Amino acid sequence: MRAAVAEFAEHGIAGARTDAIARAAHVNKALLYYYFKDKDALYEAVLDHVFSGLRERVMPVLESELPPREKVLQYLGTYFDYIAANPRFPRVVQGEWVRSGSGTMRMQRVAREYFRPIFEKLGAVLREGIRAGEFRAVNPMDFLPSIAAVIVFYFTSAPLMKTMMKVDPLSAERIRERRAFVLDFISAALFTK
User: Which residues pair with 22 in a beta bridge?
Assistant: First the structure.
């Protein structure tokens, strides 16, 4: 799966080569096709791997009994940590959005199975925090994509930042600094006190 994620992140579904995936995974191509009938099936498995991992980590936080403020902070940290541990995942996801948009069956399935449950739970947390006076009155339709952007864009732009700034944006020190920034930035935008 790691080899497939790397290949799809780098080349997208159209440019990815199953022989390159098999070679990177140290298996023969026949074994790859034994488990996945074709490249599309492997790509579907990669998407499920990426999104199910995120869902498995953030949903327990969103379903917890924490107060809204703590729940949002815990969610942000968990989401950030998942992406930081898997920095190629955003490139796979964004590549799919750019190539296919939301109209394909693949993206409709991904939205239904992965994005919608997270969006609905997080939206409920925001509304609860707003009612309690802990959060500013934000529209989840605007705020939730902004959260994703603040977290994800950093990782998708890491190669450019490394070239421009001569600093490794994915070093442990920079990741710690960025994580603290993300939590502080979103807290300042959302919390009333």
Answer: none
pTM higher than 0.85, yes or no?
A: yes
Whether the Cβ atoms of residue 192 and residue 135 lie closer than 8 Å to each other: yes
Q: Kindly tell me if the per-residue pLDDT of 127 is higher than 80.
A: yes
Determine contact, residues 87/143, Cβ cutoff 8 Å.
Answer: no
Instruction: Evaluate if residue 97 carries a pLDDT over 80.
Output: no
Residue with tokens 């925001």: 126
Q: CA distances (Å), 160 to each of 60, 81, 151, 153, 181, in order? A: 34, 21, 16, 11, 19
Closest among 4, 50, 46 to 29, alpha carbons compared: 4
- Average pLDDT rounded to a whole number, residues 19-45: 89
Ramachandran quadrant class, 17 (left: phi over 0; alpha: psi -120 to 50; beta: rest) = beta
Q: Which residue has the tokens 């199953």?
A: 18
Higher local confidence (pLDDT), 71 or 87: 71
Distances from the Cα of 171 to the Cα of 155, 175, 178, angstroms: 12, 6, 10
Cα–Cα distance list, 91 to 7, 12, 184, 191 (Å): 11, 9, 25, 30
Q: Are 86 and 53 a contacting pair, CB within 8 Å?
A: yes
Q: Which of 142, 132, 149, 119 is nearest to 58 (CA)?
A: 119
